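Format notes (please read before filing issues)

Several people have asked whether sequences and structure tokens are stored in separate files. They are not. Every record keeps both together, in the order shown below: the sequence lines, then the token lines. Line labels are part of the format and must not be stripped during preprocessing.
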Amino acid sequence: MARHAVIFLCAFGLFQKGLSALVETQHTVMAAVGEESCLQCQLMQSKNVLQVTWQKILPIGEDNIATYTRKFGQTVNAGFKGRVEFKTAGLQNCSINIMNVTDRDEGCYRCLFNTLPEELHGPFLHVLDSVVSCSATGRPAPTVTLTLPHNNSTSVTNSNGTFTVTVTARLHNNSREVGCAARVLSAPHKEASMAIPEVKMSAIKGFKEDSRPDNSGVALVRIIVSVVLCSVCVAVAIIAFLCLRKHLKSVSEKDSEMTKSPQKSTKDSLEARTPLMTKVNELRLRWSSVKKKNLPRHQI
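Then the structure lines:
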């Protein structure tokens, strides 16, 4: 019965600068000489990985075995071609097979997940009137949080590949201190805080009391319209009063004329009738004289 020697392969993974806790792998793999051995490596958090590299640890350094990138795909270095191939090629999960294992393959292997270096600048906290803003710049885009509710967030991509994230919120009348935190991926977060001055607190309180939107323009228009309407009403009232007064005066004058007019007509009629009466009297006198002449003398 043939016996196969068993060799031990240790494997561990690294993410950037020694963050091995983010990488999961089999620490010890046993393989028989002449058979095939699989080394697996998986990134536990989703990261912006550019390249995965497998290395063999040597007493005087390390030897690159194979690399995988999205742009260039799978690459096996010359010293391992024909003996090493990718079983799973990915930027989050990458494994290789060592075929026809020999004693020389015994040792420790390492997988590296290479990304763009993380950087974080800030956070920077600013308070202007009743508005608080907190901004941070980093790569990849940082996560920025404020200790105030109902905030808005904006992100801007800079020319150097970094991102600037700004979060704004409005102060409340009970806000004595405001805090801000920023972090990039798994890196430790940075914090900033600021005490709200008493002057600003008074301004905020006044803002809360007058929290209604500024309608000064509308109010001015309303005042002008009210003044114009009042002026028009007063003018209409004055004109109506003058017209009524004129009308009453005219009626009064007509009544006065009508009162004087009958007296004049009576006088005129009397004057007109006076000559007639005179003539009648004259006729009576004449008639009497004629009658007297015609009567016999003895009757006279």
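For reference, the curators noted about this record: The domain at 119-211 is CATH 2.60.40.10 (Immunoglobulin-like). The chain has a mean pLDDT of 75.
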